[in-house]
Write a structure and sequence with these properties.
With 237 residues, the protein is α/β, with parallel strands linked by helices. Helices cover 36% and strands 21% of the residues. Helix 4 (72-80) packs across helix 5 (103-112). The radius of gyration is 20 Å and the shape is elongated. It starts with 5 loop residues before the first strand and ends with a strand. The model has no long low-confidence stretch (mean pLDDT 95).
Length: 237
């Protein structure tokens, strides 16, 4: 049964940057008026709300924490507690909620109970990096994290490279920031010289740096500074 409740999917910053750079005014106003949120981390959600400004004191805003073990039943209770004609916000740790993000489960439950799901414009590191990469933007796959074990990681990267070549499909992945250097080295040493690799660091912030080169060219170029900075790696064979 369809309700008049609305779940708003509100993007948050990818890093330190003025709000005007990454969030439209209408979305900022919407975020500031809501009194209930679902978030991965209440602390970072409050930091986001403090940045955009709220109509009521932060301590009066309810923030439900979406943990790894949060059940669909719990999410359903949060959503059904929203009054008819009421609204609730969903935010991620960074970027767009529900895209490569556990917030997708919240959107799924909302649809299951007939709730309106409203996506709002804001930064997506995956799409921004893909836009800037010059690689195929029609066929792509986001894999999240590669294996931590060096041998398994290299084998997985080669397998994704094979799929990329067969399907002309851009491969996207991320790494824990303190392991970025190791990931870059593995990519450069594992992939074919003709494969194009894009490194997209700190997208949409003052430290943004995005470059695409062949693996052969990366081998003869200065190593990029990636340590402890959020980075996406994209490649196309």
């Amino acid at each position: 049964m369809t309700t008049t409740r609305t779940l708003h999917l509100i993007p948050v910053s990818l890093g330190e940057a003025p709000t005007s750079r990454w969030l439209p005014n209408d979305v900022q106003a919407l975020a500031g008026r809501l009194d209930t949120y679902i978030a991965e981390n209440a602390k970072t959600a409050r930091a986001f709300l403090k940045q955009v400004g709220t109509q009521r004191p932060l301590q009066d805003i309810t923030i439900h924490t979406l943990a790894k073990n949060t059940s669909a039943d719990q999410i359903r209770q949060w959503l059904k507690a929203v009054p008819e004609d009421g609204e609730i916000g969903l935010v991620s740790e960074a970027g767009c909620p529900a895209v490569a993000d556990p917030g997708a489960q919240v959107a799924a439950v909302a649809h299951a109970i007939g709730m309106r799901v409203a996506p709002w414009t804001g930064p997506s590191s995956i799409l921004l990096a893909l836009m800037a990469s010059g690689l195929d933007g029609q066929r792509f796959a986001f894999h999240g994290y590669a294996p931590v074990d060096a041998g398994q990681r290299a084998r997985q990267l080669k397998q994704w490279e094979s799929e990329s070549q067969k399907q002309h499909q851009t491969q996207l992945l991320i790494e824990t920031p303190y392991r970025n250097d190791a990931m870059f080295e593995t990519l450069v040493q594992t992939l074919k010289g003709s494969t194009r690799l894009c490194v997209a660091r700190s997208v949409s912030t003052d430290h943004e740096w995005i470059r695409t080169k062949t693996i052969a060219d990366w081998k003869s170029s200065p190593k990029p500074e990636l340590n402890r900075q959020p980075t996406l790696f994209l490649y196309l064979a």
